[in-house]
Amino acid sequence: MYDLAFFRSNLELIAERLATRGYSLDVGQFRELDARRRAALTESERLKAWRNAESAEIGRLRKQGVDTAERQQKVREAAERIAALDREAEELDEQFRQLLASVPNLPHESTPVGRGSEDNVEVRRWGQPRTFDFTPKAHWELGPELGILDLERAAKVTGARFAVYWDLGAKLERALINFMLDVHTREHGYTEVLPPFLINSASLFGTGQLPKFAGDLFKCEGYDFWLAPTAEVPVTNLYRNETLDADCLPVKLAAFTPCFRSEAGSYGRDVRGIIRQHQFQKVELVKFARPEQSYDELESLTRDAEDILQRLGLPYRTVVLCTGDLGFSAAKTYDIEVWMPGLNEYKEISSCSNFESFQARRAGIRMKSGRGKSEYVHTLNGSGLAVGRTWVAVVENYQQADGSVVIPEALRPYLDAERITPRGELK
């Protein structure tokens, strides 16, 4: 969401910057609404001034015994007209706000201009993809052979794009969650929080999923409850309509949640395996920062997410998204992509974004110090990491010629095992 005064005063500049995202702002529509609103307010103010002057004159005349019935009737008519004009201005203002709610954030000046993913810019790589002396398998082959992943029974229980993890598959998922949370809370300085997994519409508006992306979400019939698409939503909204102490920023929170997405716009993409699911687990990192510090915090948040991959020994690359590939609420985003041998490509495993004050305005999250008036905080978040995709990366990168999977050293204390064998037994 934008500051209304800034938006109204800078329509052409905003339209120009939004065009780099591939978004066409209907400047004429906003100008028409604003002109009608201003006209209503101007007429209302003119009538109020006339009413006040006329009321004073009526009072003077009545003291002189002059009949003022006709003039009083005109004042009453003016009052009715003023009320109607004020309602009209409020309605037009609400229409303006509703339209504004569907306008994406402005890209930061350091975000490269481009049309789509092909224009994203790689900023660094870590590790080298493993050279296998056998043909590596994809996780949808390895998982069933190891007895740790079951897509058929998941489809029977629920439907397509769901998974059942068995035995060490389930334990590996749980180990990854605990490992990520432990690293982020013990070493990276985040406070763990376990939020509700059902959220209301106000929360989804605050982070920008509503109203524009309702089709990507699952809603509970008969309730104002939605299944959380990511922990970003409930965790960011913990401070909705609150004012934080600026001297205590940044606030750094880490949360595990299951995530639920309809994947409405992903027809035909990543249909095999568990790369793109309706339900998946994720550890999310969320920050509330001072505006002047938020881009330093974005860099450190991204490094925190990368650190998990380094500790697991998983090769990855980090790219900065171009303007045309940015998410709706983001001003700048880094995508971290892990190497998947079975797919023979890098796949996104984390998006780390700075939303500046865009979400904070929608959610009413401010900060204040003893030195001045309150202002909106900057919000940031990123996956630290998407657990299911990390599961896939571990299984595919650590597979062996005999069909087993070696467990990364960092996870062994959580699993009390060094290898997953084709029979699913511990060694």
SSE layout:
Elements: H1 4-9, H2 11-19, H3 27-63, H4 69-100, E1 121-126, H5 139-146, E2 149-150, H6 151-157, E3 164-165, H7 168-186, E4 191-192, E5 198-199, H8 201-207, E6 226-227, H9 232-236, E7 243-245, E8 251-260, E9 279-289, H10 294-312, E10 316-320, E11 332-340, E12 345-354, H11 358-363, E13 366-368, E14 375-376, E15 378-386, H12 387-397, E16 405-406, H13 412-415, E17 419-420
Parallel strand pairs: 4-8, 7-13
Antiparallel strand pairs: 1-10, 2-3, 5-6, 8-9, 9-15, 10-11, 11-12, 12-15, 13-14, 16-17
Helix pairs in contact: 3-4, 7-12
Number of strands: 17
Oligomer: single chain
Molecular shape: elongated
Question: What fraction strand?
Answer: 15-25%
Order of helices and strands: HHHHEHEHEHEEHEHEEEHEEEHEEEHEHE
Give a quick account of the main beta sheet: strands, pairing sense, barrel closure: 8 strands, mixed
CATH architecture of the largest domain: 2-Layer Sandwich
Radius of gyration: 28 Å
CATH superfamily of the largest domain: Bira Bifunctional Protein, Domain 2
- Could you say which structural class the secondary elements and strand pairing correspond to? alpha+beta
Average pLDDT score: 95
Percent helix range: 25-40%
Ends apart, CA distance between termini: 54 Å
Please tell me the total number of domains.
Answer: 2
